[in-house]
Task: structure prediction
Amino acid sequence: MIIASPTDYREAARRKLPPFLFHYLDGGSGAEQTLSANVADLNQVALRQRVLKGSETLDLSAEWFGLKYNLPICLAPVGLTGMYARRGEVQAARAAAGKHIPFIQSTVSVCSLKEVASQCDKPIWFQLYVLKDRGFMRDVLQRAKDLGAGALVFTVDMPVPGSRYRDPHSGMSGPNAEIRRMIQAVMHPEWAWDVGLHGTPHDLGNISTYLGKATGLADYIGWLGNNFDPGISWKDLQWIRDEWQGPMLIKGILDVEDARDAKSFGANGIVVSNHGGRQLDGALSSARALPAIAEAVKDDLTIFADGGVRTGLDVMRMLALGADGVLLGRAFVYALATAGQKGVENLLALLEKDMRTTMVLTGTKSLREVDSSILAGDHAGAR
Ligand SMILES: Cc1cc2nc3c(=O)[nH]c(=O)nc-3n(C[C@H](O)[C@H](O)[C@H](O)COP(=O)(O)O)c2cc1C
Result:
């Protein structure tokens, strides 16, 4: 299949992956209204076309927490990334390192933190969930620290897992799920050979390290389901701020009040996010929530945003709405599933090209010039 644009990777991944994995990645919660709105609302953001204001040299770099990165993009934490390509977290981390952007490793990654650190020469950022098992949280936090993780991304929008209605239909869960998954694997031989046979162990690396025994997909659903903590509050988490001295981002902020609370908590940044439309269906899209949050806390916090970012143009739109950086979720996993590390590298090259074109056509030379002043139409004056 020809890959000409970043969005071609979705169809390529759909063809290659067993349906239970494709739909787990592609789907959202409830009727998937927030998932759709993330994409649709971002598409509605118009930029001002300017002429005869371009430049041959463009600065696409970003600076967060005193360090410079080549693009204003991070690879988002995506659980089970290692089921989408052979040792998928390692491949994605290497692609990110090659481009000098952060790879954020999920708590529920297939590869352990140690495996990724041993295979990749740049430090990752680590994403931590709030879980009932505080012993696990302390243990994994310590391991992330020992391995030199560059930032902690603390995800707070999953006190309970959202209702993912595609899962029982696809075989991710539901009746005879294991047999259905095996049949699907047989019918997708390229994936079965690359990941099913040669990408083992299909573990939850960080959790099996802690438990001292092998884990698998059943544990993913079971352990996570039993371990989320709906009763948690900011003050229950203060020990984490006290224990982690490096940069800390709170991920899953969609409300101005929560953004202010994150600041009071002592966060260095936030990720404006609805978990890619996988939690509260009917929540605002990130593109709609972002301007007011940026207005409220931009002077005090570094603001990242995710949800619906599929192209370089989308990256520019998020920056224009007030973000300092953008996380790519599904987009990078579609590319990883299609062609591994090379797929992610090519995706990043396509996004960069798209961003460069957008910069020339909006008359911006550096990302520091990208703000609400480049918004057009209904969004002009959004901030
Ligand atoms: C399959 C899948 C698994 C995810 N797992 C995690 C996770 O383990 N931790 C986390 O903080 N966010 C997780 N997310 C949310 C992403 O980090 C990110 O917020 C979201 O994908 C952004 O939306 P986008 O996919 O439209 O780019 C997951 C998203 C997907 C699609």
Summary: DSSP finds 16 helices and ten strands in the chain.
